[in-house]
Amino acid sequence: MKTADNIVARLPRFYRATEESSFLYYFASAFAKTISDQEKGVTGIMLSHWVDTASNLELDLLASIVEVIRKRNEADNDFRTRIKRTLVDRKKSGTIEAIRLQLATFLATSEDDIIIIENPLTGMHFEKKVVSGDVWTMISSSISDEKAEIIISVEDGEARDPAIIDLDAQVSLRYNGRLKKGDVLMIHQSGKIELNGIDAASSVTFEEEEVKKKKNNKTNNNNNPSAEEMISKRMLIIPRKPSRWQFQEKLTDTLARFDRSKFDENVFFSPIPPTTIKIDWYAKLVAAFEVKIPSEALIKNGLTREELEAAVNSMKAVGVKAVITLQEEKGKEMQVP
Q: What is the dihedral of CA 203, 205, 206, 211, to 10 degrees?
């Protein structure tokens, strides 16, 4: 033991401490072992601070600083390589190319197998039960204004001359008639209007302030767009900024009266059944991207969906939504929420 030899070499020779069978040498060896263990501990702490020399749990803890997670049964050398690659890629500030490169490295697959789509097209749905006078706010949640499809239905009772009004755009669409229990009025994106699957365009009135002004000024209407075109271009547009919408229906005197003792309030003699409004559209999601990954790459690496999701979340910028789609077979996809 070199450390023990260094200790006994400083003692007087007549102690004969250099003899390994002596009591003093045995005593010095015990101290030497303690010193050696301490040196190894200090050296281990120093080495655990570097990717090239850290191992096992120390390497996992070091990688957690940059949010890199070891894959199941991944060896230290492979993990070190991936950590270094990630550190280099992070300099690109989470760009699409950087994320694609990191995922290809993480899954040990080709970059061509990783498909990333910015602002993915996602189906949106709004549903609300309303009575006459109700106002709500709509927003497309998209990078642009989007066309929508509107469905008005009555589950009980009836709705007389129901109308939907975009208060900010100052346009309205009114069905002239009564929607009875079980009726479904559908306004398609094209502007086509159907009641229970039968064309009902003749029973619908579309109005906007600009049209009213033209009529008042007796403007030539020969070149004006049809009502169907106006409905598809104005009434069915969900703006990307918040907009206020309102539902109205005609109420008879036997149904309600205004309480003159209270400003702008009315009292109903009998409950008014609510009308259901459903609005569907597709939005190009803001601050979001979709990642399409072959499912076989997940199986090959022995990864779970949660592990893949955690890896993608560690690569993207804060506040950006990632939608993961596993491509199983051609034409079949499975989304990871």
A: 140
Q: Where are the domains of the chain?
A: 2-110, 112-120+287-336, 122-284
Calpha distance 253→72 (Å, rounded): 72
The single-letter code of the amino acid at 276 is T
Which tens digits make up the pLDDT trace of 298-334?
Answer: 888 888 888 888 888 877 877 888 989 888 754 455 4
Residue 273 has which token pair?
């059944």
122-284, what's its fold?
Answer: Jelly Rolls (2.60.120)
SS3 192: coil
pLDDT at 91: 60
User: If 0-12 CB within 10 Å is exposed, 13-18 middle and 19+ buried, where does residue 279 land?
Assistant: buried
Judged by phi (left if over 0) then psi (alpha if -120 to 50, else beta), residue 191 lies in left
Lowest mean pLDDT among 190-194, 222-226, 281-285, 322-326: 222-226
Tokens 């927003």 correspond to what residue? Answer: 139
| Domains 112-120+287-336 and 122-284 are alike in CATH topology | no
**How far apart are the C-alpha atoms of 195 and 34, rounded to whole Å?**
90
- Return the CATH class of domain 112-120+287-336: alpha beta
Q: Are 113 and 298 in contact (CB under 8 A)?
A: no
> Rounded distance, CA 167 to CA 171, Å?
7
- pLDDT, tens digit, 9 for 90 and up, residues 210-246: 545 555 554 444 455 566 677 777 778 999 999 999 9
CB atoms within 10 A of CB 335: 11
- Please provide the average confidence, as pLDDT, over all residues in the chain: 80
Place of tokens 């101290």: 31
DSSP 84-137: HHHHHHHTTTT-HHHHHHHHHHHHTS-GGG-EEEES-EEEEEEEEEE-TT-EEE
